[in-house]
Protein 1
Amino acid sequence: MKLKELEGILQDCAVFDNPKIQFEQYPTTAHLASRMLYTADTVYDDIENKAVGDFGSGCGILSIAANILGAGYSVGFDIDPDAIKIARENAEQFEVDIDFVWTDLGSANLDSFQGKLDTIVMNPPFGTKNKGIDMVFLKKAIELAGTAVYSLHKTSTREHIMKKAKEWGVSCEVVAELKFDVPMMYKFHKKKSVDIQVDFLRFGKR
């Protein structure tokens, strides 16, 4: 499957009706999701026939992309039951099999998944409302993934993340520098949309 084809398919993914600012819910665009998963699959062979977890799965677009690219197993984790409901409906519409776990990743015990997930993909909250939550997600993902973690983070945090990766004994590679287009979704937004510079990172387990 070509990248453009994957992006086109993912455009049909339904997004949040009423996004919740406390969870920093911004939908991952088809543009970003397709590039993340396509690269993970074609360049690193981390998706096809692999068990893939999606942290902060939201409306399920990353898990759906993983499924389309031939993931052997997919599971999404999210704190918001309304998001999981949309994700389930999306999975049904795309006719893909995805398990969803309703949990707070900040405090969840995920021992039952230890050794069961090869790859974890995520577009975590950036930590603007809940300081440090992005790093909590990342540390937990690295502990759980067997092979690799793919994640989006603000480019401004790159140095800090590289330092943490070293501390945690994992490799960290900037796969791409991307623009995250945040549309006007919340009352405090003054502009129609804002582009945030983000790094698409791959963390490899040694």
Protein 2
Amino acid sequence: MYHVSRPDGTVGQPLAGHNQVPGIMEVMFCRVGSPVLQGVDYASLSLNLWALDQEHRQHLGAFILRQEVLKDGFHRDLVIKVKFGESIEDLQTCQLLIKHYIQQDFFVDPELASLQERNITEAVMVSENYNIEVPNYLSKESEVLIYAREDSQCIDCFQAFLPVHYRYHGPQSKDGETFIVVNNLDLLMYCDQEFPILKSWAQSEVAAPCALKNKDICKWNNMKYKSIYKNVTLRVPVGLTTHIPLVCSVTLLITMLCVTLILVAVYGHFSL
């Protein structure tokens, strides 16, 4: 086990493993010929430093993803921002595609076509027989593709936007609220040219349309990423089971009153 000598002559942590090294730059300040490094195999030390530097670069180069839900109430905006940790020239030749799995607690805004025309989002629904009327306990998970755009306010950044709405949730016996954890997503990337540095983060290939208005199929790379938030949890208000008798009684009463008024209006009109 070797110790690291800092520029001021003090001795750092033992160089037994990379998790114990204070930092790559601090290790690089080791003075050749220092008494604490006499007898060190400098070839092995250089190899270890190169490995540490490669791991450090790999950590910096990963995609950093932030998923958050904006607004209050039952109508929310799902916003996804992606930052590439290492600057790459000609990255503008690449496209990012978000493959999201919307759980049964939500439904995607049915006016996607209108939102596309207004240049608000570039999302397309993949799932068929998509019903926005059913409650969450009768619904199924849906799949949506969101083509991310470059963020003009951030270098090597992309962002995607998707309006979603809560489905009706059944009443509960207590608390009057339930919690929803937003699903994780797949981050897909397609580039017109090859970037060797990106291959280390590619997990698999996925077939998907090349663009929103291009039905040709491209092979996208499913990329690894680091998420800022481990879980995005939302709190949704729901009814209480103790209120069911009252709600049913009031609903029945109002229904009977409306039917009576309609009958009176109809028969009163004919009697005149």
Protein 3
Amino acid sequence: MHRLESLLVAIELKDRLSSSFPEGAEVTASRVLEALTTEKCNEQFSLERLEVLGDAFLKFAVGCHLFLSHDALDEGQLTRKRSNLVNNSNLFKLATMSKLQVYIRDQAFDPPQFFALGRPCSVICSTETDTIVRTHENCLKNGANMEVRCTKNHHWLYKKTIADVVEALVGAFIVDSGFKAAIAFLKWIGIHMDFEASQVSNICSASAIFKPLAAPADITTLENLLEYQFLHKGLLVLAFVHPSYNLHGGGCYQVCIQFSPSHKAFGPRF
């Protein structure tokens, strides 16, 4: 019954996502359940692997969006903007605004604490139990381990746990449907990003200003070592420009490494 309840919760969230944006129908209920289940549940699966994937993609996608949208910002400014969007505090805020926290499975099955329909719980959620709830919240802040249950199935979650679930859901969409579906989910939750082919083309064309720096270097030999032929040589040159070098009008490898979009994800060879 406990596992059936968890699956029904995942199906409910999947139905909500499906009705909110077309790509929401492309993720399976079992994958959603995996993304909602923390290690505390002691199941054979948890959100950990999906979270790693989602975290990496979130930083990559937001970084690319900022790189393409703000060509006048340096790497420090881009990093701060990206951090403001992908940090746990912002993910927690967006998740709670979308009510995602109500779907999270964060408690192991405990038969004495499992209350089937029609069987009353010993802790009644009311104004009289407000003191108990506040005491529990203070215990969580102080690191104490304490469980409080009620008839309304309230449970207390760490903010990081809620943020981790957002990243795990991103990973779930990538696994089941791909990058496009993951970006659609991020837009739904409140992180808007768009990639236009023209923006990528503009970045590639603008890299031509770095080609004169290639004079002292043997680009052909370098490409042979990398086993890759660059269409826009300026981007390859930029990847070797140190931040201390200021005789070329700006740009260095830090921006190129951290924020330049991947050719495989966004178009033709760079």
Protein 4
Amino acid sequence: MLGAEFARLRKLGVLGLLFQGLNFLSVIASGMMMWQALCLVTNSESPIVVVLSGSMEPAFYRGDILFLTNPPNTPYALGDITVYKIPGQGIPIVHRVIESHITNTTQLLLTKGDNNPGDDRLPLYEGMQWLERRHVVGKVQAFLPYVGYVTIAMNDFPQLKYAVLGAIGLFLLVQKEHS
């Protein structure tokens, strides 16, 4: 079966392989454009995130996919579940707003994980007393339970990530054109 596909690839020649490669690149470019459009519509640098820890249980569990929006002129309210990112830390954090102060120029927030004993000031804010609105990536609007485990598995086992990407690439390369 695989040998027949390689024979078909050899039969395509250089131009056929180049055409298949360009098809693959157009799929990648289309995906990137859709992601950028979603970022613009939601006003969020990362409109879809995966929960990586159990700090928000029972509201969200590890592996849940969260859909975010970041309305520019709407202040965050107590109880809103936000995703924020501290400069210098690579991973965004999903926690609930427990205190809010609005100044003339910005909104200051204090957050806490539902499953954590205390607020986030000491362990997560890197010396800051409050989060500023510029640190917030977005507010959770919806979620899909457990679907993000695929992402967690690919991060925990890099070989799986390369195997899946390789399989997708091979599939796109050998897929037959129907006229």
